[in-house]
C-alpha cells in the first residue's frame, strides 16, 4: 500500500513541447496498492500530463530512446531505471536529446 | 604534517569499454583537501578516551595522527551525513573518482560512475586532450565558433572559453541566419544572450545577404512542389558551410570549429553508406578538414563526446540553450539514420564511437576513389566537377529547377557529370571554400552575375 507521493516532474531539451510548454510540474501521485515506481509514473504521465503525440515520449513501457531521465540529478541507469521506487519529494527530469532535428519523426517504426 | 591518509585508499579500476581516447585521470575536487583533518581527529580522540577512561584528556593530534590514522578515517567516513535521498533498496554508487559525492551518471564509454563535478572536469579534460593531441588549435589561433544556439554549440563555446587561456586561442562566435521564420529568430536570441554572458564577439551572417535573397523559407517554397520535400535540407547544409566560412573570414579567423558530437559523426557515416557516397566515406570520420585549397581548417573538438554526455554537461553546468527543432527537420533524411542509431545504441552502447572509428580506418577500393578535385568554374572554390555544390544548387534555384543539382551527378545543365554525386546532408565538406579575392565579385561571394536573381517565387 503506497501512500500519496508529492514529486516534481520536469521536462527539458524540447520535451516540454509535448506538455503545453510547461517545464516544471508539481504532482501528487495518489495512494495505490503497488508502490510507485518509474514504470507506473510513466503510465500516469501519459494519462494525465501528456498533451499530444505520446509516441514521441513513450515507447513500450519505457521512454523513447534519446530521452534522458535524471532522478534527483542522477542518471536513472544508476538507480534501477524503471524499477526505481519513488520517494516523497523526489525530482524527476526528462531531457530530450532529439531536438534540433527529428523530434517530430515518429514515422518509420 | 601532511595528512595523506585519504590517498592510501584503493582506487577501483573502472571497467573499460571500447578503446579510444580516455583522457587524463580526474583530479580530486578541492573540497576534500580543504578539510582540516586534525580538528576532527582531536574531537574523535577526545571522545574515544572519554568513553574508555572516563577522563577528559586533551592529546596533541600529532601524537596520534599516524597510529590512529586508519581507524580515525573510518570513523570520520561513517560519521559524515549520507547523501540525500538514498533509496535503501537501490543506493546510487559512489563517484569512482573522488569517492565523496554520489555518482550522477555512468560514462557510456568506460562504464565509470562519476559525480557531476568529476564528470564535468573529465569532459573538459577530454576535449582539451582531443584538441592538443590532434594539434587542432595551435596557440595564437583565432577561432570562429559556429554558434546555432543549440546544445552542441553552446557546450562547445563554453568549454572552449574555459580552455582558451590554456590553449592560447581567442574566440569569435559566428551565427548563421538561414532565414527560417519563427525558428531561427528564437535561436539567434539565445546566441545573443550567450555572447553577452560570455563576453564574446558575435557575427551574424544571413543567407539572404550572401546568396542573393534566397532564405531557407524561399528555398523551401521553391522546392515544395518538386516531389520529395526533404531536399530543402540539402540546400541548407551546403549553404550553411559556405556562410560559416564567410563569417569566419569576416572576423579574420584562422580556424573554424563546430559542435558536432560523436552521434552526429556516426549518423553521417551511416548516411554516407546508405547513399553510397564513396567520396565522403573516404573522408568521413576524419578529425578535421585540414583546409584544402585555401579553405579555413575546420575541426570538431566534441567529436569524441557522445550526445548524452553533451546534454548532461549542459545540464550540470546549467547552460542556457535553444532546443526546438527546425520546422523543416521532419523531412531530413538524417532523421532515419538517427532513429537507426538510437536502436543500435540501445543494444550496443559503444556502437556510436565504433562506427566513427571504423570510418576513420576505411580504405576504398581503387575504382571507388573520388577523382582529384579541381576548381569551380564560377566561384573558384574547390570542386570535383565543373561547378561546386553551392553554385550548382543556387544555379538550379535560379533557373526554377531546384532539383537540378540534387541526385545522380548532375551539376548544371551543360555538365554531364559521372553518376554517384549526391546532394549533401552530411557534415563538413572540405572542398567548399570561399572564393579567392581575385575571382570575387563585389556583390556576391559566389562571383556570378546571374546568382543575384531575387524573389523568384
TrEMBL record, chain A:
Cellular location(s): Cytoplasm
Keyword Transmembrane: no
Pathway(s) served: tRNA modification; 5-methoxycarbonylmethyl-2-thiouridine-tRNA biosynthesis
Family annotation (Gene3D superfamilies): 3.10.20.30
CDD domains, alphabetized: Ubl_Urm1
GO cellular component term of the entry, any: cytosol
A Pfam family reported for this protein in Swiss-Prot or TrEMBL: Urm1
Post-translational modifications reported in the UniProt record: C-terminal thiocarboxylation occurs in 2 steps, it is first acyl-adenylated (-COAMP) via the hesA/moeB/thiF part of MOCS3, then thiocarboxylated (-COSH) via the rhodanese domain of MOCS3.
Database matches in InterPro entries: Beta-grasp_dom_sf, Mopterin_synth/thiamin_S_b, Urm1
The UniProt record lists the keyword tRNA processing: yes
Keywords: Cytoplasm, Isopeptide bond, tRNA processing, Ubl conjugation pathway
One GO biological process term: tRNA wobble uridine modification
Superkingdom assignment: Eukaryota
Family membership: Belongs to the URM1 family.
Function recorded in the entry: Acts as a sulfur carrier required for 2-thiolation of mcm(5)S(2)U at tRNA wobble positions of cytosolic tRNA(Lys), tRNA(Glu) and tRNA(Gln). Serves as sulfur donor in tRNA 2-thiolation reaction by being thiocarboxylated (-COSH) at its C-terminus by MOCS3. The sulfur is then transferred to tRNA to form 2-thiolation of mcm(5)S(2)U. Also acts as a ubiquitin-like protein (UBL) that is covalently conjugated via an isopeptide bond to lysine residues of target proteins such as MOCS3, ATPBD3, CTU2, USP15 and CAS.
UniProt-listed PANTHER family: RURM1 PROTEIN
Subunit structure: Component of a complex at least composed of URM1, CTU2/NCS2 and CTU1/ATPBD3.
HAMAP family per record: Urm1
UniProt protein name: Ubiquitin-related modifier 1
UniProt organism field: Physeter macrocephalus (Sperm whale)
Automatic annotation (TrEMBL), chain B:
UniProt-listed Gene3D superfamilies: HUPs
Enzyme class: transferase
Region entry Disordered, spans: 1-35, 404-457
tRNA(Ile)-lysidine/2-thiocytidine synthase N-terminal domain boundaries: 143-327
Gene Ontology cellular-component terms listed: cytosolic tRNA wobble base thiouridylase complex; mitochondrion
GO MF annotation, one: tRNA binding
Primary location: cytoplasm
InterPro entries assigned to the protein according to its UniProt record, in alphabetical order: CTU1-like_ATP-bd, CTU1_C, Ncs6/Tuc1/Ctu1, Rossmann-like_a/b/a_fold, TilS/TtcA_N
Compartments it resides in: Cytoplasm
UniProt keyword annotation of Protease present: no
Coiled-coil region(s): none
GO process terms (BP): protein urmylation; tRNA wobble position uridine thiolation
Compositional bias annotation for Low complexity: 433-450
EC numbers, comma separated: 2.7.7.-
Signal peptide: none
Key words, A-Z: Cytoplasm, RNA-binding, Transferase, tRNA processing, tRNA-binding
Pathway: tRNA modification; 5-methoxycarbonylmethyl-2-thiouridine-tRNA biosynthesis
Residues in Cytoplasmic tRNA 2-thiolation protein 1 C-terminal domain copies: 374-404
Self-association state and partner proteins as the record states: Component of a complex at least composed of URM1, CTU2/NCS2 and CTU1/ATPBD3. May form a heterodimer with CTU2/NCS2.
Recorded family membership: Belongs to the TtcA family. CTU1/NCS6/ATPBD3 subfamily.
Function: Plays a central role in 2-thiolation of mcm(5)S(2)U at tRNA wobble positions of tRNA(Lys), tRNA(Glu) and tRNA(Gln). Directly binds tRNAs and probably acts by catalyzing adenylation of tRNAs, an intermediate required for 2-thiolation. It is unclear whether it acts as a sulfurtransferase that transfers sulfur from thiocarboxylated URM1 onto the uridine of tRNAs at wobble position.
Protein name in UniProt: Cytoplasmic tRNA 2-thiolation protein 1
Source taxonomy: Eukaryota, Metazoa, Chordata, Craniata, Vertebrata
